Fold:
Amino acid sequence: MAKSNLKIHFLGTGTSQGIPVIGSDHPVCLSTDAKDKRLRSSILLEKNGKVITIDCGPDFRQQMLRYNAQRLDAILFTHEHSDHVLGIDDIRPLVFKAGQDMPVYGLERVLSELKNRFPYMYAQEKYPGVASLIEHHVNSEAFTVADFHIQPLHVMHGPLPILGYKIDNRFAYLTDVKTLPDHTITQLQGIDVLVISALRKKDKHFSHLLLDEAIEYAIKIGAKKTFFTHLSHHLGFHSQVDKELPENMYLAFDTLEIDLS
Structure:
């Protein structure tokens, strides 16, 4: 039986501030190249007419309008930082259209934080028009949602344990990464497409990979193609940096689409 097409849509590829940064006169923030305009990092996966996203940040509404979203079957969360969860209220139109609550997946700690930040979505007597969530705690075991086979990947965001995800054993998404445990590297060996974060080129960061560190991990993993995301303006112009990368490694950009047939 032929494999189903897995389509990957980059909704956003920027850091928590996005690009351009408010009030910045950095040359990248002033760039007229569309590939230097980056919303907060998120990705959308499509297969067999089903749609899921990984993370749901503050640009979610804008991203889904740009994608022309007509449905959303589930949200996978990597971690609880604001640039990855603050768009959750904007799922309302899609929940109302589907006529059913939204399944959300993440570490128990992350889902508990959603309850703390959005208590009105969990209230027994809800304000009219509030969407509801169906929680699914994720650990290390693989699971299936909306036709997608999901393998959680444990990674470290500085001192914070977070999740990446391997989808259908062909695609992996790792954002906000600083270190990868050996067992996670083993799980990723030879994958078709790897997406991994790369904050900037220099000035070490306590919780994010620099570009050369991300390249080193990509070489260890040996993906057929690697795309770097969660990029800050300090990385440089897309058109310049993309040319400097090793073979089969690329900078991702907003609206990039990959079709794994």
User: Anything to note?
Assistant: The mean pLDDT is 96. The two ends are 13 Å apart (CA to CA). The chain has seven helices and 14 strands. The longest helix spans residues 211-221.
